[in-house]
Amino acid sequence: MSLIKEFSSKKILSLIWQQDGTPYFKAKGTAAGVFSGCFPFFGFQTLLGIFLARIIKGNLALAAIGTWVSNPFTYIPLYFLNYKIGSFLLQDDENIIIQPSLIKEEFWQQGWFVISRLILGSSVIGLLLGLISGTLTYYLVKTIKK
Prior knowledge:
This protein is mainly α. It has helices at about 1-15, 25-35, 45-55, 60-65, 75-90, 105-145. Residues about 1-5 have low confidence and may be disordered.
């Protein structure tokens, strides 16, 4: 079983390192993908990552791979962290997760309460993780090519 994991990890790493372009080009693609993967836009994260990578002239394949930062194993912790960061930045009471009086007439107002905090937190965490992953990719690719 560990041989399969080792083979898979090596195969994925070789795919990343075999991509065309400079370390900076690869880093921009990875950063765009990780940034996009931090948002709760299920089904559109990869498209957003590729779109952003094209705008900043980064590697499109690495942008698509970078969106895998959010997956079924990381959805709940990542989006909960994003929500908490957004709530902190908007100076909400830390004990409030969502408004307790969620009734039909107030549904859209409640939705905006949650979504605004989630999007703000996703932006902050996405920028941070994108910067970290882009920097790591740059230095790893540059080091391995030597």
